[in-house]
Amino acid sequence: MNRPWSLIATAPMGLEAIVARELHQLGYEDARAENGRVHFKGGPLDICRTNLWLRTADRVLVNMGEFPARTFEELFEGTKAIPWHEWIPAHGEFPVDGRSHKSQLSSVPACQGIVKKAIVEQLKQHYHIDWFEETGPLYRIEISLLNDRALLTLDTTGPGLHKRGYRKLTAKAPLKETMAAALVLLSRWNPNRPMYDPFCGSGTLLIEAAMIGWNVAPGLRRSFPAEAWPVIEEAHWEAAREEAFDSVKDDIDLQLTGSDIDAEAIRLAEAAAKSAGFSREISFHVAPVAKAKPEGDYGVVITNPPYGERLNEKDEVERMVRQLGFMAKSLPTWSFFTISPNRQFEHYFGRPADKRRKLFNGNIECQFYQYFGPLPPRPPRGLHTPEQS
């Protein structure tokens, strides 16, 4: 298999452009975004690199094949024509997941069964055996049907890329690590500016900012099913991890602070920051938003306030958003970035956002409200700062 592989980075709705930007920055100039996924080309080393580095994607998949599938026969023959033996060894485990949308083949279990049978038939022809015990490496396959067209993929990632490994326990209603990273990347924050989160919960936004600030690859602390695949040599994973370790910039001073009214959430945040290796770089304290006191100039507030989904919580959420607005008035050089499903957020905050962006926090439709403060003044000519590199 010397030809470039067709790869897919799956993306939460609304973050496709951010995932594509990440891929471009990693050197994949051919990255092309569409609904829920970003297509790009690569080989074994690229599967390793993207699993380690992508901050906002859900998974990295191998595109095994696409073809029309209006009947079970078309689905069977199209699946069987794919050279599965180039990937799956005789003892490999290959479960099949499925989904169907706007397609004549609407029974997902039936489609899964057809795909499994077709793969078994193809492997039988190559390995000349009739029974596959499936005791080896995991090759999770998905059949996705959309508008009578089938897409078959292999999952290289396993548990979603938001599973960084540092968050063992969480406060209620946590923000996914991938979404937290996206909010930081969408903001004006850089490691030379203070950052504050007055509703920090279990600290995810601040930890993701620390990882971005120090250029820490988010997948360094975890493993992936594709590490056991013979088609990807162990040397590729070693090279990708060595590159990631060499890229860490832990000599940058970070100014990261979080507060929350919930003492238990702060305890969890401190434990997560310690697990991630940032216990000295991030400071946490118990305080309501009304008493939060960010320090410094030209800082950035990035936060995910409580949503108040229960009727008796709505007044409390309104009060907290108003207090966030009062904070913004007292910090004229700071920028504020907030994700919220509250359609009245701008009213309670006290002014319309400079920019809004629709995002989905899980299945909840939200807006990312962006309030731009002034940028820090440029240093005198001759001085050099990291952000100018």
UniProtKB/TrEMBL annotation:
<dbReference type="Pfam" id="PF02926">
    <property type="entry name" value="THUMP"/>
</dbReference>
<dbReference type="InterPro" id="IPR000241">
    <property type="entry name" value="RlmKL-like_Mtase"/>
</dbReference>
<dbReference type="InterPro" id="IPR054170">
    <property type="entry name" value="RlmL_1st"/>
</dbReference>
<dbReference type="Pfam" id="PF01170">
    <property type="entry name" value="UPF0020"/>
</dbReference>
<keyword id="KW-0694">RNA-binding</keyword>
<dbReference type="InterPro" id="IPR053943">
    <property type="entry name" value="RlmKL-like_Mtase_CS"/>
</dbReference>
<keyword id="KW-0808">Transferase</keyword>
<dbReference type="InterPro" id="IPR004114">
    <property type="entry name" value="THUMP_dom"/>
</dbReference>
<feature type="domain" description="THUMP">
    <location>
        <begin position="46"/>
        <end position="156"/>
    </location>
</feature>
<keyword id="KW-0489">Methyltransferase</keyword>
<dbReference type="GO" id="GO:0008168">
    <property type="term" value="F:methyltransferase activity"/>
</dbReference>
<dbReference type="GO" id="GO:0032259">
    <property type="term" value="P:methylation"/>
</dbReference>
<dbReference type="InterPro" id="IPR029063">
    <property type="entry name" value="SAM-dependent_MTases_sf"/>
</dbReference>
<protein>
    <submittedName>
        <fullName>Class I SAM-dependent RNA methyltransferase</fullName>
    </submittedName>
</protein>
<dbReference type="InterPro" id="IPR002052">
    <property type="entry name" value="DNA_methylase_N6_adenine_CS"/>
</dbReference>
<dbReference type="Pfam" id="PF22020">
    <property type="entry name" value="RlmL_1st"/>
</dbReference>
